[in-house]
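Minutes, project check-in
Item: structure for the 93-residue chain
Input as provided by the requester:
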Amino acid sequence: MFRAVLAAYGTNQLIKVIVRRPRPQDKVIETATELSYPSAHAATSLAAARAVPQLYPAAVLMAGSRIALRVHHPSDVIAGAALGTAVAELAAP
């Protein structure tokens, strides 16, 4: 699981610096960065859930919270979830 989460996070950060999409302007909380696409929370939580299926409900809630807090656009979360799932699938033994 650690390898999948680490790979998802690293890939996510690389995409963020290439795309450089800004976060929504009306976010509810402050964030460490202003880059939004894709969502690292969605990517890493879904990567972990791919390795440990019992984590899927928590991963989905985590991803949804990013939209509810308005720190990500829905497409950021969808892309992050897809990225995390795909990277975890490739990293699976």
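Outcome recorded: Helices lie at 2-19, 40-51, 56-68, 74-91.
No further action items on this chain.
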